[in-house]
Amino acid sequence: SVQSFLADRSFRKFLETHYFHRYLQWKWLEKRPVDKHTFRLYRILGKGGFGEVCACQVRASGKMYALKKLEKKRVKKRHAETLSLNEKQILQKINSPFV
Prior knowledge:
Layout: H1 2-15, H2 18-31, E1 39-47, E2 51-58, E3 64-70, H3 72-77, H4 81-92
Antiparallel strand pairs: 1-2, 2-3
């Protein structure tokens, strides 16, 4: 059958390619926890009532993102904990490892 053919010879050939090696590298990166060393920070894009937004780049992929940094003191001073948590919950629905 086609399935047994692909599972045998073709798959073994794939395991020897650089594509499979690259796939394993990306899977390893996906499992690593996200921390402040995951990103390279660039200039500030804007400031708001609770903190600032700056441009950042994921070191592993080179992709650019906007990073929002909230200052805990400002959030507490303005009694905006609920607002901040609601925003976090909404952003988590996009299923990004960076939220």
